[in-house]
Every structure is written in C-alpha cells, then in structure tokens.
Write a structure and sequence with these properties.
The chain is built from 12 helices and 2 strands; from the N terminus they run H-E-H-H-H-H-E-H-H-H-H-H-H-H. The chain is mainly α. It is extended, with a radius of gyration of 23 Å. 30% of the residues are buried.
C-alpha cells in the first residue's frame, strides 16, 4: 500500500522548529503535564446525526438561494432545517468515528513566547513572512519548544534582514532517524525522504522531551494508517 503522509510535507515547510517535553507515569500531581496524542472518539453517533441534520439544512438553503425561481428558504426548508434528531443514551455512547487528538503540555515558557514574538515582529519589519504562520503561533510554540530556542530566535534577529539563518542552529538529534525507521517498518516501505529525515533530526533539537516522546509513540503505532494519523494530529496540535 502506498503511504501518504501529510506530516512529511508539513515538515518540509517548517521555517522555525517547535519543541515538546515528555511526561512519565511517575509524575507528581503538582508537576506540569506533558504533551499527549491519544486515539479517541472524534464523533459519536449522536454527533453524526446532528451533523447530517445541519448538512441537509445547508443543502436545502443553498439550492433555494440558487434556484431560478422565487424560493423562500424559511418556507421551502422548514422541514430540512426545522427537524432536530433526538439521541438516545446509546447514540451518545456509541462512537461513529475514531481518530487521534493531541493535547499540549500545561507548561508554557514565557521567555520562549516573548522571543518568538520578537522574531515575527522582526520578519514583519523586513517585509518577510513565514508561509502559513504568524505571531499567533507563539503561544502554542511556547508549550513545545525548549528554553534554548529563545536564544536561537534572538540570534536570527541579530542576523538582520538579509543574514544567514543557518548561523543560528542547535546540534541535530536522531529524531528523524527514529521516527522514519519506525514508519518504514509499520508501512513496509520508505516513507521519509533524506531531506525529511534530516529536517526531523534538526526539528528534534527544538522540541521538548514530552513532544518528541509523543511523536515516537505515534510512530510506534501498530498500523501504518494509525502512525500517520497520529503524527498528523501531533503536528496539528503543536502547530508545527
């Protein structure tokens, strides 16, 4: 089966890396919780019923508004939009769609967030931009990046508008080797390109231990599909 990994393409577009710190089963109640990515019920049968009700109403409204004749949505769609499915306890308990959901750790580093904000302000002053990202991601990245990353942001700013960004780097890790090795085994084919593997190795230097631990747990899922879906949730929740 040909695997298709959205996270591979997402990582190839990362301009700055984000980091996470792992949690163990021996954490004390007053210690910060680390990042998790778990398989959960994303939609119950009750949710699915309400979703289908909304879709039916939207289809009717769109058809009415696009009709070549006079159509009053409030009358023509009164049945489609007026009904509301009732749900039993069984409907609320039964899962219609499973998937993976990521939750960031509870600790946010103010120094990293401030440095990240300075970095995006610097990009704006240089008329530069990070594709698909703006300063709003800093609050999430402050929950996944190592404290050392604050110095990398400031180093990048010090390079000026036309400086060499590779002058500000952290030593690469083996995150890419570990993730890609596990994925290749689960998917029975080569998933990562050499560039993606190297990019993940670089990214690992930015991420806190709980974030890399969550990624490794994803890559260790029993099936290729679950591993890919889990890593996609990992990327989405960390806004990488």
């Amino acid at each position: 089966m040909r695997a298709s990994l959205r996270f591979v393409f997402a990582l190839s577009c990362l301009p700055v890396a984000a980091a996470l710190i792992g949690c163990s089963s021996t954490e004390k109640d007053d210690e910060p919780l680390g990042m998790t990515v778990e398989k959960v019920c994303l939609e119950t049968q009750c949710d699915a019923r309400h979703r289908r009700d909304g879709e039916a109403c939207s289809r009717c409204m769109d058809a009415c508004l696009d009709a070549s004749f006079s159509c009053d949505p409030s009358r023509s769609c009164s049945i489609s939009c007026g009904r509301a499915s009732t749900c039993s306890d069984d409907d609320r308990a039964a899962c219609n769609k499973e998937g993976f959901r990521g939750e960031l750790g509870t600790h946010s580093n103010a120094e990293v967030e401030a440095a990240c904000t300075r970095y995006f302000d610097h990009l704006a002053s240089c008329n530069l931009a990070v594709p698909g990202r703006d300063v709003s991601v800093c609050s999430a990245w402050a929950k996944v990046e190592r404290l050392e990353v604050a110095k990398i942001y400031d180093c990048s700013i010090a390079q000026g508008c036309s400086g060499d960004p590779t002058a500000c780097r952290l030593p690469p890790t083996t995150l890419g080797d570990e993730l890609c090795g596990a994925l290749d085994g689960a998917c029975e084919e080569t998933i990562c390109s050499a560039e993606t593997r190297a990019g993940l190795n670089d990214l690992g230097a930015w991420l806190r231990d709980d974030v890399t631990a969550a990624a490794k747990k994803c890559a260790a899922q029993a099936s290729c599909t679950d591993a890919q879906d889990c890593l996609t949730a990992w990327i989405d929740s960390a806004q990488l």
